[in-house]
Design goal:
Number of helices: 4
Low-confidence stretches: none
Number of strands: 5
Strand content: 5-15%
Distance between the termini: 73 Å
Mean pLDDT: 90
CATH architecture of one domain: Ribosomal Protein L15, Chain: K, domain 2
Largest sheet: 3 strands, parallel
Radius of gyration: 30 Å
CATH class of one domain: Alpha Beta
CATH topology of one domain: Ribosomal Protein L15, Chain: K, domain 2
Shape: elongated
């Protein structure tokens, strides 16, 4: 096979319909848009419009709110940290911080801090300096001989 033999499979491409080219073409005059009205014009997108009936998004009650002060933590498991140590990406002697995890490629970005969860097992003795950790994760870290220092969250004023 040569480069000049490459072709799309039969039926893979459709030729464009030429609209509005005379009544003999079958799609002339109104070009398949029906007659008059909003949708016959160009630049129309009537999403959520139900013909004057109260639209669904207005019929349903509103619930909840979005807390603008909520912290968004990046979650990392003990298994991922152990895998990074095994792959020699993380230094087991240095403290495990958000910056160290980003540099090692364990997480992409730290957001408002890193929260450690207890998935998997930890064999290395590590010092964690993170924003949060689950109780089970802290137990596993201390069982492996490590320690956890949680970042002090600012007290509500």
């Amino acid at each position: 096979m040569k480069l000049n033999d490459l072709r799309d499979k039969d039926g893979a491409t459709h030729s464009k319909k030429r609209l509005g080219r005379g009544i003999g073409s079958g799609s002339g005059k109104t070009a398949g848009r029906g007659v008059k009205g909003q949708k016959a014009r160009s630049g129309v997108a009537v999403n959520g419009f139900e013909g004057g009936q109260m639209p669904l998004y207005r019929r349903l009650p509103k619930r909840g709110f979005n807390n603008i002060f909520a912290k968004s933590f990046t979650i990392v498991s003990l298994a991922k940290i152990q895998a990074a140590i095994d792959a020699k990406k993380l230094d087991s002697k240095a403290a495990v911080t958000a910056e160290a995890l980003v540099a090692a490629g364990v997480i992409r970005r730290a957001k408002d801090g890193v929260r450690v969860l207890s998935d998997g097992d930890l064999k290395a003795k590590l010092t964690f300096d993170v924003a949060g950790a689950s109780k089970a994760a802290i137990e596993k870290i201390e069982k492996a001989g490590g320690s956890v220092k949680l970042a002090e969250t600012a007290a509500a004023e």
